């Protein structure tokens, strides 16, 4: 039993988020709280004493002494109350910080599969709303709860010592409290989870509509999107109203039970004063103590609601924290980096979770260090999947891909990625200065000269120089918006800036014209000679001079060789090349 309680405690939100790390603050907070609650006992006793001596008192000195005592007690109460709030509420903000940091750091380690499972809006809502609910539970929830519990321990014994008989009648209705609390708490839990899930959907909708605003507008879908949002909003209101019912019922129900106690007290207590069984001072003190019990009764309801919300939110945060990065290698050698950039694919197979079909089927390919390789083929043939496996954005089976003879799963992922300059198909830039975007992966943030050099290699230096604030210009929401081609070239500059051993360009020049593409590839070949270069492209003329062209179809390599060799073979490459050359002539 004790072991079970201990496990429950160790699993509780309060222990995990607050007590485990901030034991000392918890201890000091609890001590100040006990002090406040003990001090609280005295004012009614001072009043009782004053009322009881009043009828026979002629000298005001004793009354003045009692008034002075009352003042002193209130002062001590104020100081302890301040300390107790600082220890609990102040620390709850530290817990909020810790949890948010842990959540963010954890998300950063997760692989692509996780981000396909959870939508951005949902994650945003967990990182903000849910963490906020946990803070409310470990701050105000814990504070109110402990306060209420101490009141329950401290006040009833005093009341009983004043008059056991009167206490029995006034506490008659109390056993109802835990039963009502438990029932309402369960209803709150269920409804709060539904509200949070709905909030996630709203966040998703807002996020998608903001990032996809151009698509929404160009398809004239603003009205439809508005009505979908309205639907979600209405649902959110309904769910919140449903949640508000048990939450609003909690406080009044407990207050009502306490007030019933006061009615009984006035009736039976009044009779006892008339009968001379208790003094008038005792009845007044009794009433003060019962009135003091209204707070913990109400507070218990509020506290349960906050704790319940915190528990439900922690469950949603735990769901994310329980996600593991897909690639967990058994023997990671932390010193093992990439020296030359030889890459070998050994019988690589892959299929996405949602698919039955294999996307890659038995890929064997060796790319020598410093080689310039292009991967071409029809759409959906598996080119992007293959190159995404090199920096482990898509997981590879153990011992299927090797860099410089080492299984990529055995290389520390940070080290692996530091040596690979990867430019994905989808461009993403931060709402920061251009220079910060270019130097994102380096340690020389803010150095315009360094970023200018890489912008030049990526063929975008002149366009940046024409901007009013040049390399200092802010991008995105807070600054300028770039064209698709400009964004693509900035992402190339960013990849080159890390001085990688392997450069991978995944069809990232689709929005620039053939002449600019040619220039960029030539720049890379000139300034990064000796580095391994892998380019996925549909523009075949740009990669004619490459050392090796790999042609993929249906997840397999169907042809490989130089441009000359492949043209001579009259296979798939020849037909793709002829089609591309014809299209370029027509353009
Ligand atoms: N995240 C994903 N989940 C499920 N299937 C996917 C995913 N990404 C790609 N696929 C599927 O895998 C196959 C190969 O896709 P991949 O993007 O590797 O091809 P590709 O040759 O690079 O195509 P493209 O030239 O259009 O970029 C396609 O059938 C695609 O639908």
TrEMBL record:
Domain ABC transmembrane type-1, first and last residues per copy: 27-309
Domain ABC transporter, first and last residues per copy: 343-579
Family matches, as InterPro entries: AAA+_ATPase, ABC1_TM_dom, ABC1_TM_sf, ABC_transporter-like_ATP-bd, ABC_transporter-like_CS, P-loop_NTPase, Type_1_exporter
SMART domains assigned to the protein according to its UniProt record, in alphabetical order: AAA
PANTHER family assigned: ATP-BINDING CASSETTE SUB-FAMILY B MEMBER 10, MITOCHONDRIAL, ATP-DEPENDENT PERMEASE MDL1, MITOCHONDRIAL
SUPFAM superfamilies associated with the record: ABC transporter transmembrane region (SSF90123), P-loop containing nucleoside triphosphate hydrolases (SSF52540)
Pfam family, one: ABC_tran
Protein name stated in the entry: ABC transporter ATP-binding component
Segments crossing the lipid bilayer: 25-43, 63-84, 133-154, 166-184, 256-283, 289-307
GO molecular function annotations of the record: ABC-type oligopeptide transporter activity; ATP binding; ATP hydrolysis activity
Domain of life where this protein originates: Bacteria
Topology of the protein relative to the lipid bilayer: Multi-pass membrane protein
Chief site of localization: membrane
Gene3D superfamilies tied to this protein: ABC transporter type 1, transmembrane domain (1.20.1560.10), P-loop containing nucleotide triphosphate hydrolases (3.40.50.300)
């Amino acid at each position: 039993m004790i072991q079970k309680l201990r496990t429950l405690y160790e699993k509780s939100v309060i222990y995990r988020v607050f007590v485990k790390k901030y034991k000392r603050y918890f201890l000091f907070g609890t001590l100040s709280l006990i002090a406040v609650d003990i001090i609280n006992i005295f004012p009614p006793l001072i009043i009782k004493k004053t009322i009881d001596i009043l009828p026979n008192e002629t000298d005001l000195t004793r009354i003045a002494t009692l008034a002075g005592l009352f003042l002193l007690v209130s002062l001590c109460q104020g100081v302890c109350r301040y300390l107790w709030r600082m220890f609990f509420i102040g620390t709850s903000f530290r817990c909020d910080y810790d949890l948010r940091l842990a959540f963010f750091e954890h998300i950063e380690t997760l692989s692509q599969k996780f981000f396909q499972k959870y939508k951005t809006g949902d994650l945003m809502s967990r990182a903000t709303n849910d963490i906020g609910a946990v803070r409310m539970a470990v701050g105000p929830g814990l504070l109110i709860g402990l306060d209420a519990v101490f009141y329950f321990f401290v006040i009833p014994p005093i009341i009983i010592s004043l008059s056991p008989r009167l206490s029995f009648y006034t506490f008659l209705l109390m056993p109802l409290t835990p039963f009502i609390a438990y029932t309402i708490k369960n209803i709150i839990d269920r409804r709060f989870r539904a509200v949070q899930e709905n909030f996630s959907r709203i966040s998703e909708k807002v996020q998608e509509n903001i990032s996809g605003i151009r698509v929404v507008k160009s398809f004239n879908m603003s009205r439809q999107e508005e009505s979908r949002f309205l639907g979600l909003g209405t649902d959110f209101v309904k769910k919140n109203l449903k949640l508000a019912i048990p939450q609003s019922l909690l406080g009044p129900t407990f207050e009502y039970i306490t007030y019933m106690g006061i009615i009984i007290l006035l009736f039976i207590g009044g009779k006892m004063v008339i009968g001379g069984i208790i003094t008038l001072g005792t009845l007044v003190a009794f009433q003060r103590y019962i009135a003091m019990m209204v707070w913990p009764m109400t507070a218990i309801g509020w506290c349960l609601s906050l704790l319940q919300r915190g528990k439900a939110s922690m469950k949603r945060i735990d769901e994310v924290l329980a996600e593991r990065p897909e690639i967990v290698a058994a023997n990671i050698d932390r010193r093992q980096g990439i020296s030359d950039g030889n890459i070998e694919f050994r019988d690589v197979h892959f299929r996405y979770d949602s698919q039955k079909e294999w996307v890659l089927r038995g890929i064997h390919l060796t790319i020598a260090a410093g080689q310039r390789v292009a991967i071409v083929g029809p759409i959906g043939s598996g080119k992007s999947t293959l190159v995404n496996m090199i920096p482990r954005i898509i997981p590879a089976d153990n011992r299927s891909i090797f860099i410089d003879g080492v299984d990529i799963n055995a290389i520390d992922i940070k080290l692996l990625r530091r040596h690979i300059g990867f430019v994905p198909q989808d461009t993403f830039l931060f709402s920061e200065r251009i220079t910060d975007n270019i130097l994102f992966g380096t340690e020389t943030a803010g150095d315009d000269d360094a970023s200018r050099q890489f912008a030049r290699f990526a063929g975008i230096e002149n366009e940046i120089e024409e901007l009013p604030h040049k390399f200092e210009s802010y991008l995105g929401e807070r600054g300028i918006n770039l064209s698709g081609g400009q964004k693509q070239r900035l992402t190339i500059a960013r990849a080159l800036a890390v001085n990688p051993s392997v450069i991978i360009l995944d069809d990232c020049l689709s929005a620039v014209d053939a002449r600019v593409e040619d220039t960029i590839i030539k720049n890379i070949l000139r300034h990064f000679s000796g580095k391994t270069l892998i380019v996925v492209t549909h523009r075949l003329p740009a990669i004619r001079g490459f050392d090796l062209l790999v042609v993929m179809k249906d997840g397999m390599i169907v042809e490989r060789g130089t441009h000359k060799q492949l043209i001579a073979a009259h296979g798939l490459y020849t037909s793709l090349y002829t089609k591309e050359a014809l299209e370029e002539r027509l353009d």
